[in-house]
């Protein structure tokens, strides 16, 4: 039994990965990596420029009145020092903005070809720099449409809030204007991402084939991998000037 275990252990094949060999092989094929990176960057730039619809955004700023407010039978006031409560009120106004009734009034007023759910995905609201000012941003494929929707919200939202919360009011701090600079997609970021993915994919494929390659390329490979002496060298007469082959014909290791 002991001899059998010893023989079995001697018959085990160990597979090692030579990192230096992989790096050298990748360096010899650097032109492939560069070419794949350029192709990936070019493809990403073309897709970002011609296939993805550009989006534009326009914003309005509304001031939340912090006077006496009554909600149902409960009344309360918000002083200038109670910023946390004011921010909660801003979030409440944001929820009212994304309500179906509010957005439907905006759709009816602007005659835009969107459903309530589509418009809801185009509108975002948030407190401006932790203040009592709410910023409403509209994103659309048309910059003029985005500004028209945002300004319509500035007209509809204060009336809608006054219907729900007694004593509440909003004032327009800044109206929306068309923005000609698109917010997405970013050609620079997409091109850089395409370059990175092209390089990464090419390196992964090359490493796979390098690791799977069982060809003897040099005398050092034999002396470092196997405990066998080299008795002779066979010249490669078919490719006498090949730099990578040297004096050896390629031979698969079994």
Radius of gyration: 34 Å
Low-confidence stretches: 1-14, 244-254
Strand order of the largest sheet: 4-5-1-6
Oligomer: single chain
Categorize the overall geometry.
Answer: elongated
Task: Explain the layout of strands and helices.
Layout: H1 2-10, H2 19-28, H3 30-51, E1 56-64, E2 68-71, E3 74-77, H4 83-97, H5 100-110, H6 116-122, E4 123-127, E5 133-140, H7 143-164, E6 170-174, H8 187-212, H9 219-225
Antiparallel strand pairs: 1-5, 1-6, 2-3, 4-5
Helix pairs in contact: 3-8, 5-6, 5-7
Overview of this structure, please?
The protein has about 250 residues and is an alpha+beta fold. The protein has a domain at about 60-175. It contains 9 helices and 6 strands. The strands form 2 sheets. It has a 4-stranded antiparallel sheet with strand order 4-5-1-6. A two-stranded antiparallel sheet has the order 2-3. β4 (about 125) and β5 (about 135-140) form a beta hairpin. α3 runs antiparallel to α8 and α5 crosses α6 (about 115-120). It is elongated and about 100 Å long. It starts with a helix and ends in a 29-residue tail after the last helix.
Quick take:
It contains nine helices and six strands; from the N terminus they run αααβββαααββαβαα. It is an alpha+beta fold and 254 residues long. It has a domain of 115 residues.
């Amino acid at each position: 039994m002991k001899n059998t275990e010893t023989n079995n252990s001697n018959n085990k094949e160990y597979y090692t990965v030579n990192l230096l060999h992989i790096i050298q092989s990748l360096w010899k094929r650097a032109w492939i990596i560069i070419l794949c990176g350029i192709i990936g960057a070019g493809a990403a730039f073309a897709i970002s420029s011609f296939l993805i619809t550009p989006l534009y955004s326009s914003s309005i700023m509304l001031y939340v009145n912090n006077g006496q407010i009554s909600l149902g039978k409960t009344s309360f006031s918000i002083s200038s020092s109670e910023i946390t409560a004011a921010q909660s009120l801003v979030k409440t106004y944001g929820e009212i903005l994304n309500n179906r009734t509010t957005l439907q009034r905006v759709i009816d007023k602007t005659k835009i070809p969107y459903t309530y759910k589509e418009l809801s995905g185009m509108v975002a609201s948030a407190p401006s720099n932790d203040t009592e000012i709410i910023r409403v941003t509209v994103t659309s494929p048309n910059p003029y449409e985005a500004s028209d929707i945002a300004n319509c919200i500035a007209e509809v939202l204060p009336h809608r809030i006054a219907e729900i919360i007694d004593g509440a009011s909003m004032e327009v701090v800044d109206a929306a204007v068309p923005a000609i600079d698109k917010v997405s997609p970013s050609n620079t970021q997409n091109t850089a991402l395409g370059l990175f993915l092209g390089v990464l994919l090419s390196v992964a494929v090359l490493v796979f084939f390098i690791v799977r390659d069982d060809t003897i390329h040099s005398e050092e490979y034999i002396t470092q991998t196997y405990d066998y002496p080299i008795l002779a060298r066979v010249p490669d007469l078919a490719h006498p000037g090949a730099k990578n082959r040297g004096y050896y014909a390629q031979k698969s290791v079994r």
